[in-house]
């Protein structure tokens, strides 16, 4: 059954897509703490998330409310990818640490 599992995983990688927005703050513990405060303030409200992304995120996506558009598995760094393709849609996740800094991630859509 191993080969069928491998084929299934490859097919899923080509068909699965997600859309997400994020807020990126570069730095260490102070960046993580700031994101904890932002998360408490915005909850899971997508409009508040977009506003906070515009105000705080150091990613160029901040100009679009943090929106990264649609992407497939493996197109983002591992920690980001794992969140977006495994965690609950419509919920703000994080802070999540990557090589770029700390992120809050709002998964807006995912298709299997």
From TrEMBL:
Coiled coil: none annotated. Keywords: Cytoplasm, Isomerase, Rotamase. It catalyses: [protein]-peptidylproline (omega=180) = [protein]-peptidylproline (omega=0). GO terms for cellular component: cytoplasm. InterPro entries: PPIase_dom_sf (IPR046357), PPIase_PpiC (IPR000297), PPIase_PpiC_CS (IPR023058), PpiC/parvulin_rotamase (IPR052204). It is found in: Cytoplasm. One of its GO terms (molecular function) is peptidyl-prolyl cis-trans isomerase activity. Its EC number is 5.2.1.8. Residues 15-109 form the PpiC domain. It is an enzyme of class 5 (isomerase). Belongs to the PpiC/parvulin rotamase family. PPIases accelerate the folding of proteins. It prefers amino acid residues with hydrophobic side chains like leucine and phenylalanine in the P1 position of the peptides substrates. This is Peptidyl-prolyl cis-trans isomerase.
């Amino acid at each position: 059954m191993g080969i069928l599992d491998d084929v299934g995983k490859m097919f899923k990688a080509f068909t699965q897509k997600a859309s997400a927005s994020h807020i990126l703050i570069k730095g260490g513990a102070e960046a993580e703490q700031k994101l904890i405060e932002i998360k408490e303030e915005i909850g899971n409200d997508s409009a508040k998330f977009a506003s906070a992304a515009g105000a705080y995120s150091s990613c160029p996506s901040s100009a679009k409310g943090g929106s990264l558009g649609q992407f497939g598995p493996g197109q983002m760094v591992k920690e980001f990818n794992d969140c977006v393709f495994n965690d609950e849609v419509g919920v703000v996740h994080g802070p999540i640490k990557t090589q770029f800094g700390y992120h809050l991630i709002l998964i807006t859509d995912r298709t299997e």
